[in-house]
Amino acid sequence: MSKKLRWGILGCANIAKNAVIPGLHLSDLNEVAAIASRDGEKARQTAEALNIPTAYDSYEALLADSSIDVIYIPLPNHLHKEWAIRAAEAGKHILCEKPLALNAHEAAEMAEAADQAGVLLSEAFMYRYHPRYQQIKELIASGAIGQIRGIRSAFTFNNPNDSKNVRFRKAWGGGSIYDVGCYPINVARLLLDKEPEAVTVNALFSQEHDDVDMMASGLIEFDGNVSLTFDCGMWAAFRNPLEILGTDGIIEVPSAFVTPTAESSHIYLSANGERRQIEVPYVNSYTAQADSIARSVTNGTPLEFPTSDAIRNMKVIDACLLSAREHARVQVL
Questions:
Q1: Over the stretch 291-332, which tens digit does the pLDDT of each residue have?
Q2: Which CATH fold topology does 129-286+314-331 show?
Q3: CATH 3.30.360.10 domain range(s) in the chain
Q4: Does the domain at residues 5-127 carry the CATH identifier 3.40.50.720?
Q5: Burial class of residue 184, CB neighbours in 10 A (0-12, 13-18, 19+)
Q6: Average pLDDT of span 266-276
């Protein structure tokens, strides 16, 4: 392995071009060595624009490159399983976009393939590598807001007119729960450090958008009578807040999952009749994510967030989608 971990990018998705690759370029532990597309010209243009040394005109060619250590997969959701397994079989570590798969069964298959190949498989929830989440967990543990009584979160954006968007293809794993609802679900599990028992979700399934859920809202029940209430959508104004309600105070994160500026990183604590801002140093979450993976690969240590966590998150997503379709409360199995 070279001094820096060498990454190959499997596709030219916007999340790769606008966020993950720039984050990798900022890393001292990683470098982007190659990018692949089924459209060779697109790969070459992207490589030139983003200062990537090598462009391939097929995914297979990238996986065959023995100099690549890690593959990043930003492909549509229905392709995650196939290409993660193929990357594992090629001996590559993998960072795969969220959600890891179309369901928990697929996620488990991917995890098994990675284990058999002796490689690491990580799900790309970049937000949780930001240091403010450790600060939030420490505030909760210190008793700053007392006992947690509930969590509220949302992630919405407005993009209904992009008719070619893969998020609007049902068979490809489209829909708001897969795309952005997974974040509130994930953060509640992270902060409570436990798994939900049941979910109830209502959704707007749009025939204009191949019957995917363009908007959804739900109740995620945890033991101890604590719940996450959330909404998510692709047909509503942009927002991504988080509120943790305690018996003695509230922690607010106005921009919980997206932190493009230093100001957007800050959190707020309300307790004892006072609301104060807690400043958090600006960190590129995508760089932090890549660096955490690099340390695990280089040092032979477990991932900060193991693949088993991704499987458990998929179980909740499975239950949410079933609840929305059947208009019923669904237990998380």
A1: 999 999 999 999 999 999 999 999 999 999 999 999 999 999
A2: Dihydrodipicolinate Reductase; domain 2 (3.30.360)
A3: 129-286+314-331
A4: yes
A5: buried
A6: 97
pLDDT of the residue at 260: 87
CATH 3.40.50.720 domain position(s) in the chain: 5-127
Question: Does residue 163 surpass a pLDDT of 90?
Answer: no
The reported pLDDT for the residue numbered 2 is: 53
pTM score: 0.97
